[in-house]
Amino acid sequence: MRAGQPTGRWPRARVAVPVQLQINGRTVRTAVVWFAVHAEHSAWVYANDAAAGTPFTRINTRPGSIDLASSEDAPVQSLDRLAGERLSHRVQAGTPLVQGDFEVIPDVDRQQSVTVVVDSGAVRLQTRGTALTAGNAGQAVQVLARGADAPVTAEVMAKGVVHVGR
Q: Which residue has the higher pLDDT, 64 or 70?
């Protein structure tokens, strides 16, 4: 008997291994043998359900045990790297924290209240507004200034601050 190598992502819950039955060096039969795999591993899991958009700082976690073979994504190894990130989708208590659960929080987010700065010569005006699109420093976003009828394009300067007319 000669067993081949499993292919694809490893570990995974079910694995097919090609097996050849040989007599005097000649293959007389080939079959596929399936195996169930369970790879127990300690990892961080969610202590509570959490909604998409929840900042990591507001998420409760606890140590737990997961089956790496059943996981579609790599578990988060260090919670420190999640500072400044948020959930990209809803999660349930008891499920592992995986890399694909998180996204970086932009400097300006949709529907966020922002400071709108306008310079005109030596005069600097400042008001509040609402970002209609998300972006990071140096990127253009659409903003509706307080009392305005139409949005304007502004450049993101810093967290929560945009500049019009640059």
A: 64
Contacts of residue 7, Cβ cutoff 8 Å, sequence gap at least 6: none
* CA–CA dist 82, 69 (Å, integer): 24
Domains of the chain as residue ranges with CATH: 2-36 (no CATH), 40-104 (3.90.1210.10), 113-164 (2.30.30.760)
pLDDT in tens, 2-35: 898 888 877 888 888 999 999 998 989 999 999 9
**For residues 135-162, average pLDDT:** 95
Structure tokens belonging to residue 108: 């300006």
Q: In one letter, which amino acid is 142?
A: Q
- Residue 74, both tokens: 């790599």
